[in-house]
């Protein structure tokens, strides 16, 4: 096991040992799947939305995950209350800008949250992240086109610098950066795109990893890699049967994760800046 793999595994073990509470303000499509996925991983989910209680819940959580998948203005107002409480109590805040770019309301709401709350990590697909930095890319509802990690590296770095947060762009390969260091995470399976909520659950899983590891680039890399490994293992067993069987097997594989699960199922590569504005994969 490489030094990086050891560091990634240590974060997984901290999640499994401490079972962090993750406060999710998420969308109506993925709520149950997100709670079950967090339980499978070994974390504790809670969903809480009422303006009367979100500040109290956020301050006792290990992480707060804001997801605008089925947003309304009162819900975004409540997310900001929760986010400010999390900020005041040192609780990391993660944002999933679901469908940013599909409508102006989604883009503007994500940007409002980023202005009014200190967000530590943003995870989205390439189209969503592009729209957060004013770049146009096709988005069909909540879905982006197929993207490879290396192709998204420049965008991720630009977004991390512009939004002052760690950015993870997911797709066929994932990329994660704090604006300086940049990593490509491969793994997963195309079946993930046929099950709704796999991006949303991933953001909440990254919340569990952020709850136990203050280095959010490390926490995020570990979360992406183990999530991809669980999906790859599930696909190996169920690809022939289809997305329904895969969804169940994926929850089972999240519950079975252990330090050696990455082997043969996920890989992390460091990208290096070329000095001329580009990147090459190390
Ligand atoms: N073609 C693909 N092959 C393998 N994994 C994929 C593919 N597309 C997406 N994923 C994985 O699916 C998960 C959700 O990512 P993504 O589909 O980009 O999110 P969203 O559902 O928010 O658009 C991530 O773990 C990502 O790596
Ligand atoms: C289908 C849909 N519509 C609004 S939110 C949502 C779920 C999106 O989940 P994910 O981004 O994880 O695919
Ligand atoms: Mg999504």
From TrEMBL:
CDD domains: THZ_kinase. Substrate binds at residues 47, 197. The keyword Transferase applies. Pathway: Cofactor biosynthesis; thiamine diphosphate biosynthesis; 4-methyl-5-(2-phosphoethyl)-thiazole from 5-(2-hydroxyethyl)-4-methylthiazole: step 1/1. It comes from the Bacteria. It is an enzyme of class 2 (transferase). InterPro entries: Hyethyz_kinase, Ribokinase-like. One of its GO terms (molecular function) is magnesium ion binding. Its cofactor is Mg(2+). It catalyses: 5-(2-hydroxyethyl)-4-methylthiazole + ATP = 4-methyl-5-(2-phosphooxyethyl)-thiazole + ADP + H(+). Its EC number is 2.7.1.50. ATP binds at residues 123, 170. Keywords: ATP-binding, Kinase, Magnesium, Metal-binding, Nucleotide-binding, Thiamine biosynthesis, Transferase. Signal peptide: none annotated. GO terms for biological process: thiamine biosynthetic process; thiamine diphosphate biosynthetic process. Pfam families: HK. The keyword Signal does not apply. Belongs to the Thz kinase family. Catalyzes the phosphorylation of the hydroxyl group of 4-methyl-5-beta-hydroxyethylthiazole (THZ). This is Hydroxyethylthiazole kinase. It comes from Paenibacillus mellifer. The gene is thiM.
